[in-house]
Amino acid sequence: MNFPAIIKILGFITVLIGGAMIPSVLVSVIYGEYHTALMFTLIILPVLVMGIIVSRQIKVRVSKLKLREGFCVVAFSWLLVSLIGCLPYLVTGTVDGFVNAFFEATSGFTTTGASIITDVEIIP
Q: Sign of torsion, CA 58 64 68 72?
């Protein structure tokens, strides 16, 4: 199994998720929620730096993945994206506990519509 290729792809996905969070900072600033914008910035910067470092430091050319490697990339991508996605919930205090934040993030990325938040309009 080509573990360096898997890690390189996961680094690239980390950069994509960090970049996808940038509009949240802009919206927070537009609506005057500066504390939320700061919290998102404090999450985005390390995520982007980690992703860039991982994807740049692995010196392997990802040209073709086998089926087993593809399964690993998909499985670990879902876990990684949900872990990164739960950070805003934890940092802003929107939900209590890691499990609830992880559930909320996973539910959002999979678009299942399940939520533990009763009043969605009050969250930043």
A: positive
Report the first-to-last Cα separation within the chain, whole angstroms: 43
Task: Output the pLDDT for position 116.
Answer: 75
Q: Which domain, by its residues, includes 43? A: 3-122
CA gap 39, 13 in Å, rounded: 21
pLDDT digits 0-9 by tens, 28-57? 999 999 998 999 999 999 999 999 999 888
**Element (DSSP H or E) covering residue 37:** helix 34-57
The angle at the Cα of 78, spanning 2 to 37, to the nearest 5 degrees, equals: 120
CB atoms within 10 A of CB 51: 22
